Amino acid sequence: MIEVRNLWHIYEGRKIALRDVSLTIENEILALVGPNGSGKTTLAKHLNGLLKPTKGEVIVDGINTKNASVAELSRIVGYVFQNPEHMFFEENVFREVAFGPKNLGLSKDEIEQRVRWALKSVNLGGYEDRNPYSLSGGEKQRLAIACVLSMRPRYLILDEPTTGLDEKSAKSVKEVIRKLKEEGHGIMLITHDMELVLELADRVVLLFEGVKIFDGSVNEFFRLDLRNYDLDRPELLRISERLNIGFVRNVDEFVTQILERVRP
Ligand SMILES: Nc1ncnc2c1ncn2[C@@H]1O[C@H](COP(=O)(O)OP(=O)(O)O)[C@@H](O)[C@H]1O
Ligand SMILES: [Mg+2]
């Protein structure tokens, strides 16, 4: 479990980015949402020790981030940055994914095993010899996830993993996120995409000006007036409300509800 307890973060220049935020993450998909500048990235950087609390504490599987290095923590919490495609620097996919495990000083066999496993997990088996820059948007995002997975972290932070992707690519990334959760990872999904929240999240945390405004179920979250936070309501929910259908998570559920009504 990751526990964030009464966390404050004040940047130099006195910008207060987080105000007394507490939350926990277990084996679940936690969507972290909020308008630009609300403190999402700041919070995420605390989970793997890139930032240290101004006040309060962050405990990752029993380890206080104050007393641990980023290298140590990144074996527990993997951070896939926004626009990770700018960060590839190896000539092929295999070497890109092998980079982290190599730095851990693992044996050649272990490295190879981890790379194959990580690539398979993100549905990129067979891509080993490809140049990272030749991949599509969705493939690049999945490669970035594989690079982090090869460290075998228990938790993953995904910062805007589907932003800028076309629908097909986004779908491939969604499938991977779902699968990783089923395999026992805890996932913090930072996103502006409310459709993604509706479809994938188990829980939602809403930040606004550094304050945690909401922490609860997806159903409850979508009862908030999201316009106050620069967030859109998913089209599917608008339609289902107009038709007086209850809360639905995806098109399949929507159709099931409709069919139940028209059947005698
Ligand atoms: N390195 C920094 N120095 C000073 N202020 C920062 C720094 N990084 C972010 N901030 C400020 O902290 C607030 C929260 O930023 P951030 O965590 O990036 O929000 P989000 O990811 O939700 O857009 C913003 O007001 C931002 O300008
Ligand atoms: Mg951010």
UniProtKB/TrEMBL annotation:
Its main location: membrane. Keywords: ATP-binding, Cell membrane, Membrane, Nucleotide-binding, Translocase, Transport. It is found in: Cell membrane. Residues 2-234 form the ABC transporter domain. InterPro entries: AAA+_ATPase, ABC_transporter-like_ATP-bd, ABC_transporter-like_CS, ABC_transpr_CbiO/EcfA_su, ECF_ABC_transporter_ATP-bd, P-loop_NTPase. GO terms for molecular function: ATP binding; ATP hydrolysis activity; ATPase-coupled transmembrane transporter activity. It holds the Pfam family ABC_tran. SUPFAM superfamilies: P-loop containing nucleoside triphosphate hydrolases. It comes from the Archaea. One of its GO terms (cellular component) is ATP-binding cassette (ABC) transporter complex. SMART domains: AAA. Probably part of an ABC transporter complex. Responsible for energy coupling to the transport system. Belongs to the ABC transporter superfamily. This is ABC transporter ATP-binding protein. It comes from Thermococcus paralvinellae.
